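Attaching the record inline, Q. Sequence:
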Amino acid sequence: MKCTAPLLIFLLLPLGCDSSTPPTQRTAVPDQLEENTPTENPQTTSNFPEPMYAPVLVIMQNEKGSGTTMTFSPRSHSPGTSVTRAATSTSGDPRGPAKVSWSYTGTDPKGDHYQFEKEFLENNPGQKKITKEIIYTGENQIVFEDQYQRINICPAPEKKE
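Structure, as predicted:
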């Protein structure tokens, strides 16, 4: 039992910290510089518009009820880029620990699109990656579920000011 806290810290260390302050606005480019490049087309973010529902929680829960909850904000700091996160869980699954990664891939009128991937870390020959794309509409939604683990995405609680 003495190694429980260091082990937990070690497992959560790769997740990093989520910034609690929103990104700052870029300052406007001076007019002189814009005139020097009239033929350049500015990069559009049509492939990665702002998500409708952000931030979200990704919850990995094992069959015993314990698990991990991560806050994920798909808003990126650079236009045209995606944000990807991952977490590893030892859920008591006989297939071994699983790594779950997810990324925001865009938004359309149906909702926010996410790509989820679940991969077992043990090198067993019959194992494969499971990939699933979901359209998130702002409500609790199960992404993966089996007898050992459930992974879902849901709205993050609003911050109180």
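Confidence is low (pLDDT under 50) at residues 1-46. The CA atoms of residues 117 and 131 lie 4 Å apart.

More tomorrow.
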